[in-house]
Amino acid sequence: MEYWKRVLGRESDPDGRPVKPLREPAVEIEEPISLAECKKALRDLKQTASGPDGVSWSSVKSLGPGWLQYLFNSILACGYPTKSFKNSRTVLIPKTEKPSDPGEFRPLAIASVFGRVFHRILASRLGVWAPLGASQRAFQVNPAKCSTLAIIWDGKNKRWLHDAKGQFKFRGSTLPALGVEESYKYLGLQYGSKGKLKTGLELLKGMLRELKEAPLKPQQRVFLLRTNILPKIMYYLVNGRVHQYTLRECDKCVRRFLREVLHLPHDTPVSAFHACAKDGGLDIDCFESLVPMYKWQKLVSLEEVPDNLVRDLSQLPAIRKRFQLKGAQTSFNNRAEYRMFWKNKLLDNLDGFGLGEAADVPQVHSWVTDGSSLLTGEMYIKCLKIRWNVWPTAARASRGRRQAPLCDAGCRQIEGLGHILQQCNRTWDKRGARHDRIVEFVGSQVERRGFNVIKEKSFATPRGHRRPDLIIYNKDRVWIADVTICADRGAGPMALARDNKIKYYTDEDLATEVAKVAGPGAQSVVGLVWNWRGCCEKKTDEWLKKMGVPIESRRLASVRVLEGSVWCARGWWSQSERVSVVFVAPAFGNVRTSFRHPPGSPGWS
Questions:
Q1: pTM to 2 decimals?
Q2: Disulfide check for 94: which of 99, 225, 476, 490 has CB 3.0–4.6 Å away?
Q3: Distances 111 to 49, 88, 117, 136, 450 between C-alpha atoms, Å
């Protein structure tokens, strides 16, 4: 505390230079803030930490520009800011890996997000009339924190030498010189006498090794990889000199790491890793695709700066060559084109074809990347395998080798994952349990919002007519709801299954029976549809939202569907374990054979 009181409490160095008036007073600076200024400030507001008031950046964005305009103009009219604008919390960021002195920390003051947006608007106004000066207190030199790097050119022998002697002094103190193997950090990159020391690939391998050894759940590893490691490596690669081969190897290294920690088969589609989570993928950045795009965007941004010298430098062939990569297989103008490319690659794949309707309700797929404890680590891995159709089945194992075998439960269908989860005789009880669990979940969620719910077994229906899963009603309306977990996109759109449900339950005799138990309110039939990959039908999500079910619960419903699919797949394997039988035949010796049918099943005989 004594150190920081001395540093932060001392007066600024006086500046005795005469003040030269540049122009007349600009009263425009104090004019009311316009709606356009508030919109631009919100658009430029990125994810940032909250101040002492606890208001997050997302909450400020959700208020809208009109509300901020009213607040900021009230402050301008009063002539002084609110108290929360003047308070801030200070955090100390270490400058070295193992700081041992208070001076080896950098203080960072975090004010209210409201105040930062307000000050950003005022600063943009001031920047027009009064450009910032070059002398700032933060740029004062501290000899104890500095070092030098000297390169001597030996023209006679055509070589350069590293000078390890300290020859530079500042305020009577000699600045220490870096050794041959020492380095310094500049813009996030490590440099030494030999240039940039570590390549992006070496840095990535070290980070992945630490992440793999950390005691974390698989979803937590994926979250840290996406939010911490990949952005650092992306910055390193975009701002340094890199080759296309390095980018390709970085991508392979990341995919190899994910296959190990998620226990995925080696033939998992590459597009499943790089496609957006909203489209059915894992949302892992592809360096080979994004680094060339970001480098080109940096070059384009240099062409638009107001400095003529920088614009002229950006046109030099040597500079443009630094920002371009030879052999780039894909080129994108923006992130939207990149997302569409990997989405199409995933949907063109046999395993990812069934995820074509995932983007219709993108908000239910956030469990894939948010690192939450919604699932256990084992269940998270199995849900991904179901989602991407990489669960081990006989049909998948026979790809490229022989004709796909039929299901050994006597179904006369190819033993694929879709058949196991939707049609197989062996999993009918598991499929029923999956369906009942979703019905129970939807009924409980709607009931919490104040609606009355009658479940399937609580009322009678006309002879020969199947009961709907739920009857939901209030004093004005009655909804006849039925849940379906259908096949994926290969069997037709989910909207077709919803329309079939509505058509089946639109019946006058059924409406009469429902009116007896739910009252004479206006009736409508609702089909609630998910597929076995956890995708939700668009109208289903809209109806649940209309009934007041929050997004967290709607996301949980999709996760429950995937969990039920995992239980179906595990139940199928548990009932088809091989049984070895030994026949003793003196003429032929002992003959051992195996059956995949459990004792007592038709295949056993």
A1: 0.71
A2: 99
A3: 9, 4, 10, 20, 42
